[in-house]
Amino acid sequence: MAKMCAACDKKIPLGGSAKTVDGIICKWCSKLSASYMTDDINALREYSSENADRARLFSPKQELKSIAGSKVYIDATNALFALDTKSAADMTGVKVSPLYLLKNPVVFKFDEIVSCESTTVDSVIRGTMSNKPTPIDVLNLTLNTYSGQVTAVIPTSPKGASEFFNKIANDNAQKAKEKTEAANFQRQEAYECQGCGNAVIIRDSFENICEYCGRAV
């Protein structure tokens, strides 16, 4: 009798299972969390449900690809993206059938992108005429996802991918800064300094010092 995945309730194909602390899941569900081996089933069920919701919305209209086959699928309308099978596998080290992953992508949100770092390494690119090492850019993409912070490695950077991810990361950082500043300045009122009698603006979340005499207010 076929085993059922405890996270997504689908049949686990032969040789396609992964162990967690309290159950057995399919290898695809294991790709939803870098720490799946220590996550409990309830958490993994939530991850599976969240990704399924995203996958239903996901409709990529743009594709970035490299000469070695790394791809980034982009759905700008819904602010979602997915990585090619090789890139996604590097998050957890779990290998899954490429055909299965194309039908069941691990989908990320634009606003989950924290940073994108590029490093250059020498590598022999398969499928090319040359067997000599060629300098290639490797992207390390840091994401704050529903399962925590993860790093996705794109082994051969698609053209334009670094600029795409860095722009979104910078936009996210700016939005976070503006949100923090808005929260800090959300409540403010005028207060008469007891030291010098001048009107001082006091704001929540700040150590308020009178700008005229330096006394705490």
Which labels suit this protein?
217 residues; alpha+beta; PH-domain like; four-stranded antiparallel sheet; 5 helices
Helix coverage percent of residues?
Answer: 25-40%
**Unreliable stretches, pLDDT < 50, 5 or more residues?**
87-94, 96-100
The best one-word shape is extended
Strand composition percent: 25-35%
Structural class label:
alpha+beta
Q: What is the β-strand count?
A: 11
CATH topology of the largest domain: PH-domain like
Count helical runs.
5
Strand order of the largest sheet: 3-4-5-6
Order of secondary-structure elements: EEHHEEEHHEEEEHEE
* CATH architecture assignment of the largest domain: Roll
Could you give a short account of the major beta sheet? 4 strands, antiparallel
Global mean pLDDT: 80
CATH class of the largest domain: Mainly Beta
- Measured on Cα atoms, how large is the radius of gyration? 24 Å
Cα distance, first to last residue? 73 Å
What's the domain count?
2
Structural description of this entry:
The protein has 217 residues and is α+β, with helices and mostly antiparallel strands. The chain has two domains: 17-182, Roll (PH-domain like), CATH 2.30.29; 187-217. 27% of the residues lie in helices and 29% in strands. The chain contains five helices and eleven strands, in the order E-E-H-H-E-E-E-H-H-E-E-E-E-H-E-E. The strands form four sheets. The chain has a four-stranded antiparallel beta sheet with strand order 3-4-5-6. Strand 3 (62-65) and strand 4 (71-75) form a beta hairpin. Mean pLDDT is 80; it is low at 87-94 and 96-100.
